[in-house]
Amino acid sequence: MARIIVIVIVIAVLVAGVMLVRKSQNEKAIQQAKIEQDRVAKEKADRDIAEKAAKEKAAKEEADRAAKAATEKAAQEKAEREAKEKAEREAREAKEKADREAAEKAAREAKEKAEREAAEKVAKEKADREAAEKAASAKAATEAQPSQADLDRIAKEKADREAAEKATKDAAERDAAAAKAAKEQADREAAAKAAKDAADR
After folding, report:
1. C-alpha span between 95 and 92 (Å, rounded)
2. What SS3 class is residue 146?
3. At the N or C end, where does the chain have fewer CB atoms within 10 A?
């Protein structure tokens, strides 16, 4: 009986030992599986992080390229616009200068023409007057005493000559003043236009 009990105890101990070994093996297998699972999860997380970083880098590079292209395009458009505005401004200034010079030339020529015509008229009237005075002197020398009619006529001719000379001088002064006013007006308009262009720029 005692032998049977001993055998039963031995068997129980063996069974318990086997169960403990299996339990230890199971726990070790579970721990190993958990370690493997953690490793796989970490590798997946690392891959996800690397892929995300690569995508973000690619997106940033694309955004940088787009921004650079937009900046270059804007710079090119600005340069083209400034070149066009400069060409238009230079053409406008050249035209205004040509118009101003033409107006100044026309005013100068008109003034010179008026002065020349006035001088010619004065010279002609002076020659006519000298001829008339010479004729009157010759006639007076041949006559002992000029008549009152001759004196009145000579006085009237002198007054007419003086009035004509004054009218000629006044006309020349008016023409010169008109030419000067036209030039000053052209200068004022050119200055105002230049100031406006400077303000627009």
Report:
1. 5
2. coil
3. N
Q: Is 96 buried (19+), middle (13-18) or exposed (0-12) by CB count in 10 A?
A: middle
For the stretch 63-92, pLDDT in tens is 999 999 999 999 999 999 999 999 998 998
Residue matched to tokens 């009035």:
163
Over its C-alpha atoms, the chain yields an Rg (Å, rounded) of 60
pLDDT band at 143 (very low <50, low <70, confident <90, very high): low
Q: What is the DSSP string of 43-75?
A: HHHHHHHHHHHHHHHHHHHHHHHHHHHHHHHHH
Count of C-beta atoms within a 10 Å radius of residue 183: 17
CA distance linking residue 159 with residue 150, whole number of Å? 14
Residue with tokens 């026309």: 106
Q: What is the dihedral of CA 38, 44, 48, 51, to 10 degrees?
A: 140
Give me the torsion for CA of 105, 107, 113, 119, rounded to 10°: -120
Phi then psi for residue 9, to 5 deg, are -65, -45
